[in-house]
Write the structure tokens for this entry.
Amino acid sequence: MRNSGGILSKIVIVGTPILATLAIAPGLTYDPINLPKALVVITGASFLLTSLIVNFSKLFQINKLLPFFAIIFICPLLFSLVVNDAPTSQQLWGVWGRSTGVLTYLAFTIFLLASAIEGEKKDQISLRRGFERLSYFISIYTLAQAGEIDPINWSQKLMVATLGNINFMSSFLGLATISMLSRIIIEKLSVTSKLFFGLFAALNLFLIWISGSIQGIAVVAAGLSILIMLKARKERGLWASIAWISSVTPFGILILLGTAGVGPLNALKQETVIFRIDYWLAGVRMAKENWLNGVGVDSYGDFYEQYRDLAAVERTGPQRVTNTAHNIFLDVSSGAGIFAGVAFVAIFLIVLGSVVQMTRSAKFTDTDAAFAGMFFGFLVFAMISINQIGVGIWGFVFMGSLIGSSARQKIGVKRSEIENSQARTSSSNASKVPDSRTNTSFILSMILGMTVFIVGLQPVITDAKMLRAVQNSDFQAMKESVSRSTATAFHKSKFQTLLVQGGRESEALNFARGDVARYPRSETSLRIVAFSETALKSERVRAAELLKARDPFNYELQRILDEMLETLQK
């Protein structure tokens, strides 16, 4: 792909993750973090799609299982989109505040595959440099937030960088720290260079520490363990690396159990970890009971109360709810079914196999070592967190790069040599068609990219319109916003709540009726219908029964609904 299309791919693979991490829209949209990031990632992936299709056969040269499991992963996502009752818009674009719907996962997959194809040594170096330079900005901006000199007037004064959450910030800085520690541990650099990277690594660790988020610490610990293993492999041999990783793995497991209040290190108990166990168990039940097609991509939150257990309710009360399993693998499995979950795990195992292969052969570059460390850091992130777009996109690009690098080392030739060999087999045609085919591919990429950008802009426009309408108390504009196909449950709930607060109960009831008819798991709409004095008795009974089934362990709500049903049925 030494052509305009190939150059575009290389630019997009490096540039899109940078833009996705930086993309924010404070004051313009209700969700100033995830919507702009999703737009960037989906648009970037659309620019890559044409080139990926043209070069899809090269994936089988890199790893025969990779394209197979990528397809197996994508198909259940699309199947879930078609057969589930969850709103199509919600599944397609993702739930408000997350934006990890079908389109985002398709984009992540495209970046994974394109990175595997395009990941030559110099491309890896460019990718890593881009990531590190971005991390300098994120570190300095987070430091500014810690010092309360943030130039942006966010609604809350928190250390979140451009990622919207302390945990996401700390995980991103954790990944950056791994790359910098790799510079210090693995590479032969000048004292000045190592001092520079050491200072930024120390700054990142300081920011992670004062943030109170353990995610970043866990990410760094996992990545650092891999870096030490790879250094031991190069300097002391295979058995030294095996001995190291065998010794630290049990200790890591004990620490993890300790944060959950189990085992000899239970002094490390973290309430947030215990809450995550509640979320994981609910996700497992969703996946088990909806194994074929899941509950709907990014629709975990609509079913959490139904699938949580009594212990989760009693721990902090029924008001603690979530719209994600806080585990990417469970989010995929519960949303799109077991086949999607298995394929997703298989992709990670392919990356793991690539790292193992590089470790055995000791034929890995400095950048390979850094990416291997960051992959294991991202793996920890995937197991305990949400697939936040600004962090997740980097994980998928690192994974693809590792697969591609491992494949080139295994076959013993550079990818350019493979391409030259292929070119010689069709030399009679190569002189006639490459220019026209290259130009066609480039033009198609541009057309597709611009089209997807315009389409992907619609959820952003809906969110922005809704924000303006609420700020102006313009109920007509609100109604128009929530009537758009890209309106989310958040927008509809906000609209109905404001109608009730404004004394417009009849309007709220009419909207709630239609919303329940479209999707009978809409909690706000069900509550409005159930508790409305002007709704039909049959409507109220049905809404109450749906609320009871939706939240079976909320005993206070169950008691209120039972009393209401008893009164209605007299």
